[in-house]
Write a structure and sequence with these properties.
Enzyme class: hydrolase
Number of helices: 9
Radius of gyration: 20 Å
Strand content: under 5%
Number of domains: 1
Order of helices and strands: HHHHHHHHH
Mean pLDDT: 83
Subcellular location: Endoplasmic reticulum membrane
Catalytic activity: Hydrolyzes the peptide bond -P2-(S-farnesyl or geranylgeranyl)C-P1'-P2'-P3'-COOH where P1' and P2' are amino acids with aliphatic sidechains and P3' is any C-terminal residue
Helix content: over 70%
Organism: Salix viminalis
Low-confidence stretches: none
GO cellular component, one term: endoplasmic reticulum membrane
């Protein structure tokens, strides 16, 4: 079993879908630097120091936030353990085809997030229709991510692969598709999405993560 590949490769692959988000954050950083220089508040090193201080302050705040621990640690670990490590082997052993498992597990995975409807409707005082629309979008996103996470687990044979992807997606949120003031974000998103599709199968080849695949298309051998 190759551990570092199961962390680096899936994380790099997943980050391609956030190319637009990275470009947007970079543009915000450049605008902040220009404003900083325009106001004559110091040199570039002072700006970098301020950015690092804000980053460390945010990191400290996140570490003491219970919801952050739930979203970035507890939820990814428990959900991937249940819906990937436990459910997928049972379904494969039960005779389900791999493509059926990749589609079925995410549906069950998304239904486990219906509790967010009460949170949105009750605590945030959304209307019933708006709460359903928000939750519907979340369920659609979790189905897509669940399919991807199931694909990662089946292809790599490592639970850490979908866990790393899960934590990263929870941290980043929805990918940035476009921004009105510039088309760079949309171009970056499209380029990242194309690269993601092109690299999805090559970068998840089982032999990259496991030594004894015996020329099987997947690490577990059920495909034979």
């Amino acid at each position: 079993m190759k551990q570092w590949q199961a962390v680096v490769f899936p994380l790099s692959l997943t980050s391609l879908m956030y190319a637009g988000s990275f470009v947007f954050k970079s543009l915000l950083l450049v605008d902040s630097w220009k404003e900083h220089m325009h106001q004559g508040e110091g040199f570039f090193f002072d700006f970098v120091k301020a950015i690092l201080q804000n980053f460390l302050a945010g990191l400290s705040s996140t570490a003491s936030n219970v919801l952050a621990w739930r979203n970035y640690v507890v939820a990814p670990l428990t959900e991937e353990l249940v819906f990937r490590a436990c459910m997928i082997p049972l379904l494969l052993c039960g005779g389900f085809e791999i493509y059926v498992v990749i589609l079925l597990c995410p549906i069950l995975f998304s239904l486990a997030h219906l509790n967010h409807w009460m949170e949105i409707y009750g605590r945030q005082n959304y209307s019933l229709l708006k709460a359903f629309m928000v939750v519907g979008l979340q369920l659609g996103y979790t189905v897509i991510f669940g399919s991807y996470a199931s694909f990662l687990f089946i292809r790599t044979g490592h639970l850490v692969a979908p866990i790393v992807a899960h934590i990263f997606c929870n941290f980043m949120g929805l990918p940035m598709l476009f921004v009105r003031r510039t088309g760079m974000v949309s171009l970056a998103f499209i380029a990242g999405a194309v690269a993601f599709i092109c690299l999805l199968c090559p970068i998840t080849q089982p032999h990259l993560y496991n030594d004894g695949t015996d020329d099987c298309e997947c690490w577990h051998g059920y495909c034979s």
